[in-house]
Amino acid sequence: MSHEIGVLTQKWVAAGLPKRPKDSNKGTFGKVLVIAGSESYPGAAYLACAAAYRVGAGLVTLATTPVVQNIVGKQLPEVTFIVLPDESLYEKLYNFDVILIGPGLGKENPGRDLIKRIIKSYDLPPIVIDGDGLNILAEIKNWWEEIEEYGIRMILTPHPGEMSRLTQLSIEKIQKNRIEMARKYAANVWGQTVVLKGAETVIVSSIGEVMVSPFANPVLATAGTGDILSGIIAGLLAQGVVNNFGFNAAAIGVYIHGLTGEALREKMGDAGGLASELLPFIPKALFHISKH
Question: Nearest Cα to 26, choosing from 84, 86, 91, 80?
């Protein structure tokens, strides 16, 4: 099935933002489980969790190692923790509205082994896979066939290098035709939503719908910005933006992320901005979009 290629607009994004009723509580806005971080990459866990909160999630829990817990707990006291290893982690997955797995897992987070079990599970909440989670997935032969059998819904957020490992194609070939490569694998091979990151990020649904980000910003070409994007998408899913198997959450998340980059660029210029400096701009971006 052929679909037109759309460009994300503020009007389209505003229509899809989750509602914020006045009589709400933290349960209203969903629970996110983030499985992330390692001794080598503790910051990835922090950025993903903080982004999920900044976009409006009600509760964020981080499953990670004691070293990362100590670091993130000091920086983000709002996060709750599951300290790994925890033999009951798999059973706890069902207590959450969305699972984000991958940022900064490295080879040190015991949660990385969970991916092999997740792809053979029924009735799990939506799953966002980023970073090292994608690299682990790429090592599992024909993982998409397992997912199809169990009805799992995922949003994959690769940069070109991760897309290369997932597809066994060269980065050059992927970058030469980003839209068609993303659409082929999202709709025809994997049957999952794909966010192919980069300048003018491409978002493709499991049935081949395509949205392209209007943003191409060198401020976002720095370590940690992808962790923030995955946290934003997870936070939106937790708040109920689950229509179209997560495609809308992915597209709205990309737009919010891009808008925060534009705000940081206006403040600091093209170089020198840190990923963590994007975080305060997330709620400002939401406010700006909602006033459309």
Answer: 80
Class of domain 5-289 (CATH, top level): alpha beta
> How far, in Å, CA of 39 to CA of 64, rounded?
10
Parse the chain into domains and list their residue ranges.
5-289
Per-residue model confidence as pLDDT tens digits over 72-112: 999 999 999 999 999 999 999 999 999 999 999 998 889 98
Measured distance CA(49)–CA(54) in Å, rounded: 9
Location of structure tokens 């992320």: 257
0.90 exceeded by pTM? yes
Closest by Cα among 97, 119, 101, 94 to 63: 101
Please list the alpha-helical segments (H only) found in the chain: 10-16, 42-54, 66-75, 89-92, 114-118, 132-138, 143-150, 160-167, 171-176, 178-183, 225-238, 247-268, 281-290
| Beta-carbon count within 10 A of 233 CB | 34
